[in-house]
UniProtKB/TrEMBL annotation:
Organism this protein belongs to: Paracoccus tegillarcae
Molecular-function GO terms, alphabetical: methyltransferase activity
Alphabetical UniProt keywords: Methyltransferase, Transferase
Family annotation (InterPro entries): CobE/GbiG_C (IPR002750), CobE/GbiG_C_sf (IPR036518)
Positions in coiled-coil regions: none
GO biological process: cobalamin biosynthetic process; methylation
Domain spans labelled CobE/GbiG C-terminal: 3-109
The protein's name: Precorrin methylase
Length: 115
């Protein structure tokens, strides 16, 4: 399973989310689903395939934004959302990328299914 976590500023345009997602998928392949936090469900729902989470506080992430850490208790909403949905044993395969306008981020986590 490959999950793209999406983070964004309130009211970020769909184009910014698409840009961030496209960048992440170009590096890590197409995602099977999207994930975000409840506070950003409206923006991600605009993409037509959103999955909201109760929270991502305390989930360790490879990259860290001090602003996001102060607001949400994790270094990257995109990375933490992707890891949370994938579950235990998941790994970030594409660290956080930022849309050209700077209003959205995306990251991809993957959990390999046992063979």
């Amino acid at each position: 399973m490959r999950v793209a976590g999406i983070g964004c500023r309130a009211g970020a345009p769909v184009a910014a989310l698409r840009d961030a997602l496209a960048q992440a998928e170009a590096q890590g392949g197409a995602a099977d689903m999207l994930a975000t936090i409840a506070a950003r469900a409206e923006e991600v729902t605009a993409l037509g395939r959103a999955l909201s989470l109760a929270g991502v506080e305390g989930i360790g992430t490879p990259t860290t934004s001090p602003r996001v850490m102060a607001l949400y208790g994790t270094g990257s909403v995109a990375e933490a959302a992707a890891l949370s949905v994938c579950g235990p044993g998941a790994q970030i395969t594409v660290p956080r990328v930022i849309s050209a306008c700077g209003r959205a981020t995306a990251a991809i986590a993957e959990k390999r299914e046992p063979e």
